[in-house]
From TrEMBL:
Species whose genome carries this gene: Dysosmobacter welbionis
The keyword Nucleotidyltransferase belongs to this UniProt entry's keyword annotation: no
Record InterPro entries: JAB_dom_prok
UniProt keyword annotations, A-Z: Hydrolase, Metal-binding, Metalloprotease, Protease, Zinc
Gene3D superfamilies according to UniProt: Cytidine Deaminase, domain 2
Protein name: Mov34/MPN/PAD-1 family protein
The keyword Metal-binding is assigned to this record: yes
Listed GO biological process terms: proteolysis
Name of one Pfam family that matches: Prok-JAB
GO MF annotation list: metal ion binding; metallopeptidase activity
Domain JAB per the UniProt entry, residue ranges: 30-142
Amino acid sequence: MNIEKIETFKYYESFNGSYGVKLPDQELEYIHSLCMNSYPYETGGILIGRYSDDLKWAEITTITGAPAESKQTLCSFVRSTRGIITKLKRAWQKQQYYLGEWHYHPNASPKPSALDLKTMVNLSKDEDLGCPEPILLVIGGSSSNWLQYIGVYVKEQEIELYEINNN
């Protein structure tokens, strides 16, 4: 008997409906496993995916772990760039793109720190990056109670996204 696995998603949208993110449950589970493996240290990586034809929604298709040489401490994470260009070139061949960043705040709120906000604003202004509306996903809490934040950064403005019912 051939059983086809049905992919399920979580959907997040801004209050005004201008921005949305589609996140596969499988990728969210992968992030949780990366967080558990790094505990009690912060970790992170990049978000790769595609945009809907109307550019309203971004679908995250791939989440990377912390590249080699990243700096992980109890209260900070600095992502290395080692191997990122190679991963992005492979993604581009499949018409997938850099969408943003993710990281983990162990046993803490998933709300972005002042440094997180500054970093995302700087990424949104980086013309070489070619991502004027980067997404930030922050995982907080622990394996007994995962918390998450998703935001889009547009013209130096944070736009928080909220989970919506996908039924």
